[in-house]
Amino acid sequence: MSIDGHEKRQAVIRPIGASQPVDAGGFIVNTCAADLIGEPWSRLVSHLLVQCLEELGPSLHSLQLRGSVPRGIAVEGISDLDVFCITDGRLPQASAWIDRMARRLQALHPFCRGLDLRVWPLCDLVGLPSGHPARFLLKTQGLCIWGPDVTADWPPVPLEHAQIALKALPVALERMRMAIARRSPADEALMVARCRWLAKKVVRAGFELVAPLERAYTRDLHPCWQGFARHHPALTTPMEEVLLLAIRPTARTSLLRKILELGEQVLLEARRSDRPL
After folding, report:
1. Are 142 and 66 in contact (CB under 8 A)?
2. Which residues of the chain have pLDDT under 70?
3. Neighbouring C-beta atoms of residue 128, cutoff 10 Å
4. I want to staple 195 with a disulfide (CB 3.0 to 4.6 A). Which of 42, 236, 249, 267 is the partner?
5. What DSSP designation does 22 have?
6. Residues 6+ apart with CB under 8 A from 105
7. Where are the domains of the chain?
8. pLDDT digits over 181-216, tens only?
9. How far is CA 208 from the centre of its chain?
């Protein structure tokens, strides 16, 4: 795959997603709502809940949706279903039933690109520090669809705390450098997955860098790129190229290094703007 031409890139990059506003106190507004989950996603969510109850029974404490589906902006064939499954106690071999359920739901609801289901024992979740990514995501982008809402008593999240991708970026860049240095011909599929993972993180970190100026927050890739470009016009095209690699990832080392280069530039801009990492 090559990256060439703004028009070609824009033919692939669809203007999907939206930003979350900030209230008068400077806190991120959670825009999720049950009545925003339209068809066919509501059928998938209902089926998910039935499957979780059948599998876990009384061990299921609550179920939280996150991402585009509870915000009402999911796109068939593109969007995933992101789920936090909160349990009373730890579950042995949880990955086995998660994989089994994901395959079953995917077969029944092929319009969904995939199921990202994370299991959190309640005792672990409530013990996390307030700035932990899981607490941040649930408070700002989560919707409880069954059971007690664990986030109800959590304090609102100020916009200046929105640095999930930015703080994780140095370690992510180093992991990619090590992966490139140690790669073998058998690693191509893994490198493609790592390309998508790191490209998303760089695009989101770019927006977190400018979030105080935007007075908004988002993890959606297209508005992340747009927001970053408004304040760093010289880096508009490099960020657009990394956004394309998040959509169409590759194992080509030369393009993986482009992601690394822009990631380092984002970190440099963060230090220049005195954003603590």
Report:
1. yes
2. 1-13, 275-277
3. 14
4. 249
5. B
6. 44, 47, 48, 51, 81, 112, 115
7. 6-19+160-272, 29-146
8. 998 888 899 999 999 999 999 999 999 999 999 999
9. 13
Which H/E stretch holds residue 20? strand 20-21
Residue 90 CB neighbours (<10 A) = 13
Residue 81 near residue 145 (C-beta atoms within 8 A): no
| The amino acid at 187 | D
Taking the alpha carbons of 245, 250, 252, 257 in that order, is the dihedral positive or negative?
A: positive
User: What value does the CA radius of gyration of the chain take, rounded to a whole number of Å?
Assistant: 19
Tokens at residue 64, please?
């939280």
pLDDT digits (tens, 9 = 90+) for 145-181: 999 999 999 999 999 999 999 999 999 999 999 999 9
Nearby residues of 215 by Cβ (< 8 Å), 6 or more positions away: 21, 22, 159
SS3 89: coil
Report d(CA 150, CA 228) in Å as an integer.
Answer: 33
Q: Do the beta carbons of residue 53 and residue 60 sit within 8 Å?
A: yes
Predicted TM-score of the model (pTM): 0.90
Q: Enter the CATH code of domain 29-146.
A: 3.30.460.10
* Residue 258 near residue 242 (C-beta atoms within 8 A): yes
Tell me the C-alpha to C-alpha distance, in Å, between residue 85 and each of 6, 131, 158: 41, 20, 25
Q: Are the C-beta atoms of residues 140 and 28 closer than 8 Å to each other? A: yes
**Residue reference for tokens 């105080």:** 212
Decide if 245 contacts 196 (C-beta within 8 A).
Answer: yes
- Determine contact, residues 143/151, Cβ cutoff 8 Å: no
Find the largest Cα–Cα distance for the chain. Answer: 55
Angstrom distance (rounded) from CA 32 to CA 114: 20
Rounded Cα–Cα distance for residues 125 and 122 (Å): 5
Q: What is the DSSP letter of 27?
A: B
